[in-house]
Design goal:
With about 230 residues, this protein is α+β, with helices and mostly antiparallel strands. The chain folds into two domains: about 20-55; about 60-234, Thrombin, subunit H (Beta Barrel). The chain has four helices and 14 strands. The chain has helices at about 25-35, 40-55, 60-65, 220-230, and strands spanning about 15, 70-75, 85-90, 95-100, 110-115, 120-125, 130-135, 160-165, 165-175, 175-180, 180-185, 195, 200-210, 215-220. The strands form two sheets. It has an eight-stranded mixed β-sheet with strand order 1-9-8-12-13-14-11-10. The chain has a six-stranded antiparallel barrel with strand order 2-3-4-7-6-5. A hairpin with a 6-residue loop joins β5 and β6 (about 120-125). α1 runs antiparallel to α2 (about 40-55). It is globular and about 65 Å long. About 35% of the residues are buried.
């Protein structure tokens, strides 16, 4: 079955480009042909490996459902009654979350919307020049949190999570370019959205959408550096 150029590739899954996804029967036939002709060309083997990799694509819908409680919307009041809105995600069960808030300062108040009907309050505790920020949220109980990648290296396929219209949506994509400490991803994400690697750990944070399904992101090393700036709690 061929992938399509619309935003859907199976219920709830968003993909960033058309992909030919072979059937299992076609792959089984290809394996049989390869075994029958061990001297087959390198091209055919590469096609077979690609087909197997495509079948192993993660389900963005399943991943989004699994980690939905950790993804929120962060809002900051601006002058003249305007509102700055970004995605965010919890890093710790005690209420520390990561987001992107260009122009914010340490000490700024924010509200947290997770569609449960009750907006929590938080305060910006650290922020860098790109607006990557940490927020301490006043929570009354432990919250769901995302794990952070130890290696910080991108995987072949990554999943971005975005809360919109009352639900968390997932999109599958990959890295297209590295430039200094900034990544270009083929993923349609809003700023502050977490990007998970193939182990479902945060490997990057979206900072700016570029249109055409592309997003600039900061690797998790930048987030770790920001966390290191927080004062140690006794």
């Amino acid at each position: 079955m061929r992938g399509v150029l619309t935003a859907q590739n199976g219920p709830g899954d968003r993909v960033c480009s058309a992909i030919s996804r072979p059937s299992r029967a076609a792959i089984k036939e290809g394996v049989s042909q390869e075994r029958a002709a061990p001297s087959g060309g390198l091209y055919r083997r590469r096609v077979l490996l690609l087909a197997l990799a495509l079948l192993a694509l993660p389900s963005a819908k399943d991943i989004a459902a699994r980690y939905a409680d950790a993804v929120v919307i962060v809002e900051r009041a601006l002058p003249a009654g305007n509102l700055q809105q970004s995605q965010g995600f919890f890093l710790t069960s005690s209420g520390v979350l990561c987001t992107v808030l260009p122009g914010a300062n340490v000490g700024d108040a924010v509200s947290i919307d997770d569609d449960d009907g009750d907006d929590d309050r938080g305060v910006v505790t650290a922020i860098d020049d790109d607006g990557l920020a940490l927020v301490e949220v006043d929570v009354v109980a432990d919250v769901a949190a995302l794990g952070v990648s130890g290696s910080g290296e991108p995987s072949t396929w990554m999943v971005g999570l975005t809360r919109e219209r009352g639900a968390v949506q997932g999109a599958v994509g990959g890295l297209t370019e590295k430039s200094g400490d900034r990544w270009r991803l083929l993923l349609p994400l809003a700023r502050g959205a977490p990007v998970l690697d193939d182990k479902n750990l945060v490997v990057a944070v979206a900072v700016r959408g570029r249109g055409g399904g592309q997003t600039d992101a900061l690797p998790v090393a930048r987030l770790k550096a920001l966390v290191a700036r927080l004062p140690k709690k006794s």
